[in-house]
């Protein structure tokens, strides 16, 4: 039997399993999914778990039941590309014939002293649980600082405001205006929401140090009872250690068919892949669709096109608590209740249609 090993059950790994249906896979191919948790996690909803507005159970989805799939729960420590081995913590290595690396991202601290040691994260389920416990145990009038005003920072700051009206919440933004990648009308809407709900947005910030007692903005000390870091991501450390070509962000450079330039049997999906768009769940799923197409064509001896179609993204939706939202769908900017309902609908569809 030849082994197709999928590292990581995130959005890319999940979609790949869904697209590789049993009747389309040659009889000599075995699928092995390796993940440290026994379920798929809705990473886009980690902010709600951290804020205490959703339970752990609500953001978990069972891995698909698939008669050609073996699920192996363990922690990947390294990948030996030369010998085609995946090394796991405390276990024997797994040999692969085909490998799909979808190990996701970790926080990037940009060399800020104390940031890694003294901030809370929403990048993994384990980190988010720790963040949730800390935030929900804070006494009244505690100060919570959110570093980074991208989509994750905006969502956790707004959700935490709805969850804990007694907290002082500060959102640190490096730019002049919040969410500059969105249309001006939309970023103004989000800014106004924060002003109305007493969340302090600190623009043109530059966090130079973090301690247990607080953080330094432009070297000015500001007390903080809990500091949440949402100021950038980088590929998983396993991928960072790989001796392969990468872009300036440390993401793996791939061919048009999503595999390594010098190894057509090793694919990279999701946050670790160098692609024209910023990492997102949609992008990982679109990429997984194409990897599934490449694998099936190769297995059945069919020719591959020189270039696969451009992955089309439907848009971006964000929440401002449970009642308001914002986003862009195609060329249309959305704000308010409609945007929030759309996001809730997309999430419901995903949770209830993630089987094989």
UniProtKB/TrEMBL annotation:
- Keyword check for NAD, yes or no: no
Which parts of the sequence belong to the FAD/NAD(P)-binding domain?
3-282
**Which E.C. number(s) belong to this protein?**
1.6.5.-
Q: Name one Pfam family in it.
A: Pyr_redox_2
Cofactor(s) essential for the protein: FAD
Keywords, A to Z, come to: FAD, Flavoprotein, Oxidoreductase
A Gene Ontology MF term for this entry?
A: oxidoreductase activity
Instruction: Please state which protein family the record places this protein in.
Output: Belongs to the NADH dehydrogenase family.
Protein name in the entry: NAD(P)/FAD-dependent oxidoreductase
Please name the taxonomic classification of the source.
Bacteria, Bacillati, Bacillota, Bacilli, Bacillales
């Amino acid at each position: 039997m030849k082994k197709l090993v999928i590292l990581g059950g995130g959005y890319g790994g999940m979609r790949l399993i869904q697209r590789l249906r049993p009747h389309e896979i040659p009889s000599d191919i075995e699928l092995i999914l390796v993940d440290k948790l026994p379920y798929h996690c809705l990473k886009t909803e980690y902010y709600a778990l951290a804020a205490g507005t959703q339970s752990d159970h609500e953001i978990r989805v069972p891995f698909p039941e698939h008669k050609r799939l073996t699920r192996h729960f363990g922690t990947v420590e390294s990948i030996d590309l030369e010998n085609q081995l995946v090394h796991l913590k405390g276990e024997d290595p797994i040999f692969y014939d085909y490998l799909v690396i979808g190990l996701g991202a970790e926080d990037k601290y940009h060399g800020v002293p104390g940031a890694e040691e003294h901030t809370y994260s929403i990048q993994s389920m384990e980190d988010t649980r720790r963040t949730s416990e800390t935030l929900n145990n804070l006494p009244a009038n505690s100060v919570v600082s959110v570093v980074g005003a991208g989509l994750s920072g905006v969502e956790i700051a707004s959700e935490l405001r709805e969850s804990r009206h007694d907290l002082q919440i500060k959102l640190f933004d490096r730019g002049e205006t919040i969410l500059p990648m969105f249309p001006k009308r939309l970023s103004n809407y989000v800014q106004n929401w924060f002003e109305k709900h007493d969340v302090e947005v600190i623009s043109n910030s530059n966090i130079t140090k973090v301690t247990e007692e607080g953080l330094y903005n432009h070297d000015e000390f500001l007390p903080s009872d809990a500091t949440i870091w949402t100021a950038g991501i980088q590929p998983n450390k396993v991928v960072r250690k790989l001796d392969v070509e990468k872009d300036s962000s440390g993401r793996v450079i791939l061919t048009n068919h999503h595999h390594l330039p010098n190894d057509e049997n090793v694919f990279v999906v999701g946050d670790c892949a160098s692609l024209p768009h910023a990492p997102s769940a949609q992008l990982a799923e679109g990429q997984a669709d194409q990897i599934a197409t490449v694998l099936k064509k190769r297995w059945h001896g069919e020719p591959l096109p020189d270039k696969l179609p451009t992955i089309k993204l439907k848009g971006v939706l964000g929440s401002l608590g449970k009642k308001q939202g914002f986003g862009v769908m195609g060329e249309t900017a959305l704000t308010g209740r409609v945007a929030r309902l759309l996001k809730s609908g997309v999430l419901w569809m995903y949770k209830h249609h993630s089987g094989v």
